[in-house]
Every structure is written in C-alpha cells, then in structure tokens.
Fold these 2 entries.
Entry 1:
Amino acid sequence: MIPFLSGPLPEAVNSAVSLLVAFALGTLIGAERQYRQRTAGLRTNVLVAVGAAAFVDLGMRLEGSRGAVSTVAYVISGVGFLGAGVIMKEGMNVRGLNTAATLWCSAAVGAFAGADLPLEAAFVTAAVLAGNTLLRPLVNAINRAPIDESQTEATYEVQVTVQAEAAGPTRDLLVERLEAAQYPVGGIEVVERGEGTVEVVATLVATAVAGAELDAVVAALARMPGIEHATWSVQTAD
C-alpha cells in the first residue's frame, strides 16, 4: 500500500483541502504585505497560515477537538515568538508591530482552516485585508490632524538651566511659578550638565496642559536673572 494513502482517504482529502484553503487565504494576506514591501511578505504569511493549519489538523486527526484546542494554544504562543522577530526598536520608534500582528492573524486563518472552518477563515482574511488597506486613509488622516495637547495623556517636564550654585533658589522659583499657573509639581530633580552648570527639571502632576500657558511660564523664567535657558517638553503615554 502506498504510504501516503495508508490512512482513510476522506481524512487525507480533508487535510489537503484545509491546507489548500490556508495556502490560498495566506496568499491573499501575504500579497498585500509583499506589495507594501514589508519584512514578512508573501512567503512568510503563507507558511505561517499553512503551518498553523497543518498543526491544528494534525491535532484533530490524533485527538479530535480536544487535540485541536491544545494545538491552537501552542500555535498562538509559537507565532508570538515569530512575530517578535520582526519588531525593531530604533531610538524612541518601534517598527514592525503591524507586521507582527498580521503574522498572528495569518496563523488564526490557518487555525480556522485546519479546524475545518473555511468560511470563518475567509472572514478573518477579509478583516485582516480591510485592516491593512481600508483603514490606511483613516490612519493617515488622524496622523495629519493637529494635536490638541489639552486632550492628550502625557508627562510634561519643565527644564531650567542655571549655574550649580543657583540650583536651590531656582528650584523654589520654578515650583512657585508653576503652581501659580495652576500646574502643581509632582517631582523635581537637579541634573548635572558639566562645567558648573545644572538643569533643574520639574515634572508636572497634570496629564494635560495648555501649550500656550507653559510657553508663557517658560518665557517668563527665561527672562529671570541667572537663568541661562528654559524650556518644556512632553512625552505622550503609550
């Protein structure tokens, strides 16, 4: 008997159909990624979808639905490690998150196909393609919109540069001016900048401020005797 026909033929055909569905749907997702020249393109998404389908189908063949469920859990964690490999951090910027998420979704498509749920696999594929294509104009419009700083959750800092001997009085002055502007200080520190110069940094309690108000406070501080430089910065929350 031919080895690959040793099992029941209907099950072998069913496995083949599951893999073909995963291959076709993974191709749709991967083609869009390849077109946009992403790190994980056509072949990677197809292989992830087919691999997930193969493992889930194997689990079902061996232990039924219980085997499929336990296999899906391993597929999820395994693809998570694979997705981590395409995420890169460059300074304060993180790249590859969308590519990693797409790989995860390709695995979900393959898992549905391997579990003999081709229609659901097609629905997930359509959702992934919509997320990566139809939502792009909305993302671009949001990114181009001016930021209303009063509506953002962020950490605000005011930095004043002075000579080291003036650090104490400057710290008191900075707290006084900020609290007079209704911006209480959550913390303050003195950072050495070399050659007798220090930077007094005040972190605000407020999670949102009016930029014009902080500009006015900083401008007033910059005009004070002994203050070499004054500015403020914001770091948005994740």
Note: Residues 1-5 have pLDDT under 50 and may be disordered.
Entry 2:
Amino acid sequence: MQSFRVYQSLWAMERRRPDGQEWTLDQKLSMIREAGFDGAGVRFFDYDYARTVTSFLREHGMSWQAQCYPRSVDDLKPIIEHVQELGADHVNLQADVRPYTLDECIPYIEGWRRLADDAGIALHIETHRDRMTTDLLFTLHLLDRFPDLRLTADLSHYVVGREFAWPISEENHALMHRVIDQAWGFHGRVASREQIQVQLTFPQHQEWLRLFMGWWEYGFRSWQRRAGSDAVLTFLCELGPPEYAMTGADGYELSDRWSEAQLMMKLVRDLWQQCSSPALASAPEPQRLRA
C-alpha cells in the first residue's frame, strides 16, 4: 500500500531573531517528534551532524531524507557513503552548479545518477533558484533530455522566478504540470509572484494557498498513478527563516512559522487522505484559514 510521510526541515527550525535566541538541536528534534512529523530533512555533508540527528530519529521510529549540495560529481561520493552507513529514504540533491547550456549539464546528471544507481540509493534533483534547475524552461529542457529524471518539486521557486501573473494562465499551469509529473517528492512552502514565502493564515494569501494546494493535489494523484504499490511519497515542510520569512521593521517575523509548519503538515495529510480515497473524486478547496 502506498504511504505518505511528512517531514520538517531542520533548516526551517532556525529562528534568526534579532535577540539571537535559538533552539538547541535537542529541542528542535524533540519539537519535531512531539508535533507528530514523520521525520526530518537532514544535511548530510556534515557527517557528525547527520549521525547525531539520524540517531535520534531512528531511536524514535522516525525517518529522514539526506540533503546535499554538490558542486561536482565527486562531491556526491561522501554523501553516498554516509547514506550507506546512516540510511535515508532518498538523497535530495540541489545541484550547486549553473551550466549555461544543456550539454554542460549532462555529465553532472549522468555522473550523479550513476553513483546513486550503483549504490542502490534513490536520488531526486530539487527544483531550486540559483541552482542548475533555477529556471523553469531550462528545467523542462533537462526533462526532455532525461525523461526519467526524478525531481523534488519545490514549486515556490518557479512562481517567483517566472513572476507568474494572477490568475495563473493555462499555459503556465501546463508548464508546472510537466514538472509535477516528474516529482517523486515535494518541498512545501507557498509563494506569490513577488514573495518566495507568504504566511499561510493571512487572508490576502488565501488565493496563493489554494493554488499550491491544487498543484499538490495534482502531484499526489500523479505520483499515485506512477509509483509502485508499496512506494512512499515524502513532503518536506520547509518554511524558511529570514530572509525567506518576512519580518517587520524590528526584525521579528510577522507570523509564527513553527505553527504554520504544523498547519501545513495537517493540510497536506488531509489532502493525501482525500487523494487516496476512492470515494472522493477531487479535494475541495481548503477553507480560509484564520490567524
């Protein structure tokens, strides 16, 4: 039976407040567990950090994805070694290179996939600004060249990067659906055409929330058709700290981002249940959320 896991980003647990107050790593992990997340997104380029975090998660019956940011093919080798030792349901790779042409991308993609395939480890390439996948149309050309490429879809980057006009045109929906149809995992935040991360509960952002919920619904259903009967889909709540999060003149955030992460977890779990139920043909629009 297909299943769904909702993770919390440890990067998103950073507060970056003007007063310098931060949660300890133990506090962050305990908060994630007590809130009911299934696991976390873990940086794997720092072995000691990854070992500490995965030990906690394993002890509490949780799971994780291994996040990395290679600048060369060889940069993935130690990540693969760490995953072989510590485990992970997949490697989430942000390609920290910016080739000018599609041909320049090919050695990277082929090299990274060869290393992961040889190790028997699932590899997803994340859609992200200032990376190989920074531009939507360039990424679609990558998919033309690698039609079986598995993506982690962080859709927020393309809404801002392409500055989609509202309402979203059918052409832009179709372009996003091409990306979503290659998604084997999701990173979650809600963007507008001008902001990478808007507050989920503010009334003026409800249209953007509905847009993303619709794309995630499409993505969950697409994945359910493509994936095996015992496959696992992961969704990482990734509401980032400032300057992803908006702040006021005093430098403090305009909303409670940790509460929003837990709200996002509930929204996508409910959406997964709706997508998994044969009695429901489609998910209803989410109700307006109140602060």
Note: The domain at 3-276 is CATH 3.20.20.150 (TIM Barrel).
